[in-house]
Amino acid sequence: MADSATQDASKPADTSTTTQPAVQPDTTASEANADATLPSEAVSYVDPWAHLNIPEYDEDGNKLTKRQRRAIKKDLIWEARAGERKEKRRQERQRRRAKRNAKAAELGPEAVIRRYTLMSDPKALPLRVCIDLDFEEYMGTKDRKKLAKQVRRCYAENRKLTQPLQYHLTSNTGLIKGELDRGHIDNCDIHSSAKHYTECFSKDDIVYLSSESENVLQDLDMSKVYVIGGLVDHNIHKGLSHARALGHGVQHARLPIAEYIELGSRHVLTVNHVFEILLQWTVHRNWEKAFFDVLPTRKEPAPKRSKDEADQIKAEKQRKVGSTHVGNDSHAEKPPSAFGSDWSCQLS
């Protein structure tokens, strides 16, 4: 009996009869819950801006593409939501005011609240800088939006200074004015006019800034008006600002970029870069520091080298080019004699 018990214990247990079938999850309840969350009828999407009148044809009678109609719809939505943005700005002003008041209450009567210097303040400089916006016909919608952004950037930079410049906008009409009005430029501390700059200032005081001018700007005269061409054209209309200055019979000059620094790209700058360079010059009275403080790294600004250093670098480049050509002579095509006297017969 003991032996049989031992043998039975050594045998593997037969689990075929004891294995229970796999329990399938009961999805009836979950499916019922899912069905309960579904609406009785499918809800279709309703465009809240379907009432907008989007034209199908342009002024010339050409059929607009879907992309063009989407762009028009986007602009119409922007205009329709102007009230919402105004309310948000009002709430943000209230929040900031409450924060300032709480800060002032915490610090007591000696609290100093920062206040921006207006152009009408006696501390402001008399130097006038004007952006000529009379280039609407040379720009598309995207370029006009970029120009409006650059104009607002100039205002923001001028506002930061304790001694701001006299910031002017001329020829502020048409589509350009529409783009600027979106940013509520009329509420900003800017001298804006719909007149041409020759009607706003005396021609003897005007200096039009142009990269094509042969006159180099040495320093800034506080009695002058320095006009910047408000044009974003990606260098398509070369020399347009210079031609405008010559046509109106006003003085013109260029920034002394080549005299103080070296750039790895062209010397044509954006509107806000030119404006900021003039701002920084009034702060440091140093062109080189103004250039390095403003110009982006993509322009690759570098200190101006002396003539001997420039000649040395030029000679080094020529030497490298010459050595490259000499090294490539070993790979030149061999003359026909190298293939043997009957090379032409072999090829045939």
Would you mind describing this structure in some detail?
Helix 5 links the parallel strand 1 and strand 2. The strands form two sheets. The protein has a six-stranded parallel sheet with strand order 3-2-1-5-4-6, sandwiched between helices. Helix 5 packs across helix 6 and helix 10 crosses helix 11. By secondary structure, the protein is α/β, with parallel strands linked by helices. The C terminus is likely disordered. The protein is built from 13 helices and eight strands.
Low-confidence stretches: 9-13, 15-19, 330-348
Q: What gap, in angstroms, lies between the N and C termini?
A: 102 Å
> Going across the major beta sheet, what is the strand order?
3-2-1-5-4-6
> For the report, how would you describe the main beta sheet?
6 strands, parallel
Number of helices: 13
Radius of gyration (CA) equals 37 Å
Distinctive features:
348 residues, alpha/beta, 6-stranded parallel sheet, 8 strands, globular, disordered C terminus
Briefly say what this structure is:
This protein is of the alpha/beta class and about 350 residues long. Helix content is about 45%, strand content about 10%.
Topology record:
Layout: H1 2-10, H2 28-37, H3 66-80, H4 82-107, E1 128-132, H5 141-160, E2 166-170, H6 174-182, E3 191-192, H7 197-200, E4 206-209, E5 225-229, H8 240-248, E6 251-253, H9 257-260, E7 261-262, H10 271-284, H11 287-294, E8 302-303, H12 307-328, H13 343-347
Helix pairs in contact: 5-6, 5-10, 10-11
